[in-house]
Amino acid sequence: MTAISIRGLVKTYGATRAVDGLDLDIETGEVFALLGPNGAGKSTTVEILEGFRDRDAGEVSVLGADPARADRLWRNRIGIVLQSSSGLDLLTPREILTSTAKTYAAPRAVDDVVAAVGLEEKADSRIAGLSGGQRRRLDVGLGIIGRPELVFLDEPTTGFDPQARRDFWGLIRGLAAEGTTILLTTHYLDEAEQLADRVGVIAAGRLLALDTPANLGGRASEEATVTWLDEASGRHTEKTSTPTELVTRLAEQYHGEVPELVVSRPTLEDTYLRLIAPHVGQGSEPIAEEVPA
Ligand SMILES: Nc1ncnc2c1ncn2[C@@H]1O[C@H](COP(=O)(O)OP(=O)(O)OP(=O)(O)O)[C@@H](O)[C@H]1O
């Protein structure tokens, strides 16, 4: 079943075509990561799907409804992670989670959410005293307290320390295991690789590539790089489509362990940067001066 369907979506701001004819389907239960450089149109797309922004053209369906005309019942089925805890400085995370939970029909238990986002120690402290990363955890907690079927996460781990990011990934995997559909935007390629079933890369409001993280842009069939250190001749690097064969040959040559052996394939970040390269800095390149002959 399709949770989100987008056909020919267009959004313009003055002369800027922020979203320029986007087509995309996201399946129920899928974790989908939308990737793209700054200004690619990710937030605009997500805000249209959330019903917070009007579109200029195209068809959009989210959980079977058009977000531009959706009602409160529909809104209760989706979870949105906003930068919402600002302005609530005198309250505590537990207070704001408890009052938000009351607006939903079947909310999660406040204690469960506090634990899921790792805010146990700060649950009863004023929000004013929370760090940036702790506030973001609260935002995530507010986004999931209503037990939504679909969660929108716009750059959810910005400002998280490495441990908090790992904890958050565990939380997302848990939601996905319960069947929650998740649409995530992120600039962290490792996050997309860890979490997403599929990724979509957009630039200038258009979809450039759509695949699993492992296959994006033909990644799975790209050559591997094998490096090793030879005591006599120094470091060697070879690109090959048959790395096992090369490593087997090296193992024979060195009679066992190959010194400082590394076998690597292009990372998702390498592939992503290659995909977006033609679209980055468009229009902002300095005009080269003509050199007189
Ligand atoms: N309210 C607005 N008014 C005018 N232009 C806007 C507005 N919101 C976004 N834009 C423009 O639309 C384009 C897409 O912006 P958007 O915020 O959707 O990109 P993004 O992919 O989410 O970027 P980032 O990764 O920086 O968050 C940009 O050129 C941006 O300047």
Pick out its properties.
293 residues, 12 strands, translocase, AAA+_ATPase, three-stranded antiparallel β-sheet, binds adenosine-5'-triphosphate, alpha/beta, Rossmann fold, disordered C terminus, ATP binding
Q: What this model shows, in words?
A:
The protein is α/β, with parallel strands linked by helices and 293 residues long. The protein is 29% helix and 26% strand. It has three domains: 163 residues, Rossmann fold, CATH 3.40.50; 65 residues, no CATH class; 42 residues. It is built from nine helices and twelve strands. A six-stranded mixed beta sheet has the order 5-6-7-3-8-9, with helices on both faces. It has a three-stranded antiparallel beta sheet with strand order 2-1-4, with helices on one face. Helix 3 packs across helix 4. The longest helix is centred in the middle third of the chain and has 16 residues. The structure holds adenosine-5'-triphosphate.
The CATH architecture category of the largest domain equals 3-Layer(aba) Sandwich
Principal-axis shape equals globular
Work out the strand percent: 25-35%
Poorly predicted runs are 283-293
Bound molecules: adenosine-5'-triphosphate
**Span of the ends, CA to CA:** 64 Å
Given the structure, what is the number of helices? 9
As a whole number of angstroms, the C-alpha radius of gyration is 23 Å
User: Order of strands in the sheet with the most strands?
Assistant: 5-6-7-3-8-9
The sequence of SSEs as H and E is EEEHEHEHHHEHEHEEEEHEH
According to CATH, what is the class of the largest domain? Alpha Beta
Structural class: alpha/beta
Mean pLDDT: 90
Could you say what the CATH topology of the largest domain is called?
Rossmann fold
**Helicity, in percent?**
25-40%
How many β-strand stretches?
12
